[in-house]
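Chain A, query sequence.
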Amino acid sequence: MEHTKPRTKISIKNPEFLLIGIGASLIAIHLSLFWREKDSVSVCLFILFCANIWSLLQEKRHSLNLESGFLASTLGFLLIAFVFINSIYKINFTVLLALSPFISAVGLILLASGFQGLKHYWLELLTISFFSLRTFIPLIQSIDISIITAKFAAILLWYTGFDISISGVILSLPTGSVKVYSGCSGMVLILDTLSLAVLFLCMFELSLKQKIIVPLLAATLAFIINAIRVCLMAILVAQGDQQAFNYWHEGDGSLLFSTITAFIFCCFCWFILSRNQVKNQKCK
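Chain A, predicted structure.
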């Protein structure tokens, strides 16, 4: 009994320990859900987003107001409870899996700082809402840019010497043709790369010009790399190499293009930071 009372007092006087425990539990739940769906990209991005949010919270830790009213605490508790229940019973799983990180963040903020906290943590909410958007795959795939991707891929093939013809979203070579579906148009890769751009914008101080260039470059780079992937698919179909086509289309080879895109974008970000550092040193 003597050891139980001090522990109770600590949990009351230090609500941050309870909030950290709830937050860690929510992170573990979402990681397990994305892993269960075999979505390795979401797992990696979710870890990066959580690390970025933790960094933002560390910067403002001295100004955090951990006071919440009864109504806000009750609503926050219900939202978090809903996330826990949904992780078990999978109610409308596709939609709620996408919205679950944002719902968790809102619930945790209400529980920690009440309705005023929604204004105080607006940047953290904006960051996690973008992650929720990129996991909303059905909505992303409804934005069909396949005709643009097909035309750009046809231009690349034509400039590299292939006898290519295009009809709508169908690329035809003399010995085979491939159709560019909406799922292969590049929207998912574009949003994944934009997610990295959002993290970069949140973590570092950039000029207004750089803040505009970074997301534009991220989207453009992802679109071009995906168009190159479409070109490769068309060439493999024309050669009749079905095994290689399956590997690069649905197998482990498909992840290589995402890796290349992320690597090139990270190199560009490193170049911007290095350039800014040189400018700051000259100003001093």
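The chain has two domains: 4-135, 143-283. The longest strand covers residues 170-173.
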